[in-house]
Amino acid sequence: MTHQPNPALLTTSITTTLDDIHVCTIRGEIDIRTAPMFRKALFDGIAVGGTTVVDMTAVTFFGVAGICALVEALDIAHRRQCELCVEGSHCVTRVLEVVGLATAFDICE
């Protein structure tokens, strides 16, 4: 049985500022069903290089599948010598703290 992403649970968008900063805005729940959408948005954001800000301030659930996608995106960003900055909701920053990854990411304030 395969799970199809439910767009009602997660929305993503990518914009670029005048300073060439890519802003990947994520809203909703990131779990096993929506992680593929989250992963695609992250990879699209870092694909062009430079600085990518992942705006997760409107994320209401952040599960293990989301953590894995975010760590994978960080690894790719490092290999491409890009900067990846995360701006998270309380649930995102708390999860990153609990699993010991808060210091692995540049946290935007």
From TrEMBL:
STAS domain location: 11-109
Family matches, as Gene3D superfamilies: STAS domain
Bilayer-spanning residue ranges: 46-71
Keywords from the UniProt entry: Membrane, Transmembrane, Transmembrane helix
Listed PROSITE patterns: STAS (PS50801)
The protein's name: STAS domain-containing protein
